[in-house]
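From the pipeline queue, job 12 of 40. The input is one protein chain; the requested action is below.

Action: predict structure.
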Amino acid sequence: MDPRQKPRLIEIIQNLRDRIREARANGWLGEVEGLQVSFDAAMAKLKSLKNIPTDGRPQLVDLGMPVVTDDASPSQPDEGEPRPRS
């Protein structure tokens, strides 16, 4: 997310808080649940913005640990399938 959009994200979060408050007051439990999901996602985005460098450096991305499997051998064609020609 572009760090310049942080003020807009804060505005969205405040709006979601107000809408959740209104939905609770009216007993709209399904609406509260849906709004809460959106609120949680917006808060997670806001939190992730804190980790973005603001000096123009590229951001690092965690790709996780590679998983090595034994599936590296070429597969054999099933019976009935034509074999590739060499």
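Job complete. The chain has a mean pLDDT of 84.
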